[in-house]
């Protein structure tokens, strides 16, 4: 089969490799689409520095099992099931967890072997390209939104794949959305407003926020977001990787403001969100690339030249 393989930092190469063989409890999936995530960029660029090598990246897999079921495969690929985190319903924090496209070969390939217990049935309302971004951008966004509480005024910092999904869910729930983009990115601001944001810009919002979710991997946004939220508000850092957070006065945090991160996801997150997405209904904006152009897709994402999500399409 053909696969895009990471052998060393910085570049994927198209290789002919053997079709993997499933073991006990595993499925062999014919990959039909795989979302391209900023986490993939961090892995390829060496910013997440312990992937197995060689590695087939990709953790937003849409595939078909031998019995005809269409399944989704997210980032969380395996947990031990008996550590204190798994035992308390927090499998996303499992210390022995293995992640798709990082510890386990992922979906930048024609075939993938996956643990059946961590696959998600996919709603029929979405085609392969449209549903792929829901498997990470959507799931992490959904978990971030839940951790932000019942905030009526919600700020989204960085308006990419995750934010363009979360904005739709937040508006569906009756929240007011404020989108933060780069100063010169009028196109992203227009995109955010088209999805229901009542304000989009790069400076201070027109009023205090009740919560903010930071999707951009930029630590300098943390003190800015803390300044933007009202007393008792929350700032949620949604990325798997972020640049260093600069020091800031305690006054930014004082007033019972909360700063927290999001780590991975649970299967329960996946089941809840895949039921909710058709009800909204979420509409993902997708730019598709063939498998062999995965490096180009990553470069586009790395450069911030994306409206919505990027997906590798393996079958027409």
Secondary structure elements and pairings:
Layout lengths: L1 E7 L2 E6 L9 E11 L1 H7 L16 E4 L5 E4 L2 E3 L5 H4 L10 E2 L11 E5 L4 E2 L6 H4 L5 H11 L5 E5 L3 H12 L3 E5 L5 H9 L4 E3 L7 E6 L6 H8 E9 L20 E4 L5 H13 L6 E5 L3 H9 L6 E5 L3
Parallel strand pairs: 10-11, 10-13, 11-12, 13-14, 14-15, 16-17
Antiparallel strand pairs: 1-2, 3-4, 3-8, 3-17, 4-5, 5-9, 6-7
Helix pairs in contact: 4-5
Explain how this protein is built.
The protein has about 325 residues and is of the alpha/beta class. It folds into two domains: about 1-135 and about 265-315, Medium-chain alcohol dehydrogenases, catalytic domain (Quinone Oxidoreductase, Chain A, domain 1); about 140-260, NAD(P)-binding Rossmann-like Domain (Rossmann fold, 3-Layer(aba) Sandwich), CATH 3.40.50. Helices cover about 25% and strands about 25% of the residues. Strands 3, 4, 5, 8, 9, 16 and 17 form a seven-stranded mixed β-sheet that branches. A hairpin with a 2-residue loop joins strand 1 and strand 2 (about 10-15). Helix 4 crosses helix 5 (about 160-170). It is globular and about 55 Å long.
User: Regarding quaternary structure, how should these chains be classified?
Assistant: single chain
Query: Structural class from helices and strands?
Result: alpha/beta
Order of helices and strands: EEEHEEEHEEEHHEHEHEEHEEHEHE
CATH topology type of the largest domain: Quinone Oxidoreductase, Chain A, domain 1
Instruction: Report the β-strand fraction as a percent range.
Output: 25-35%
DSSP strand tally: 17
Q: What is the CA–CA distance across the termini?
A: 17 Å
CATH architecture of the largest domain: Alpha-Beta Complex
- Parts with pLDDT < 50 across at least 5 consecutive residues: none
What do we call the CATH homologous superfamily of the largest domain? Medium-chain alcohol dehydrogenases, catalytic domain
Q: What's the CATH class label of the largest domain?
A: Alpha Beta
| Broad shape | globular
Helical content stands at 10-25%
In round numbers, the mean pLDDT is: 96
Sheet having the most strands: 7 strands, mixed
Rounded radius of gyration (Å): 19 Å
Tally of helical runs: 9
Number of domains: 2
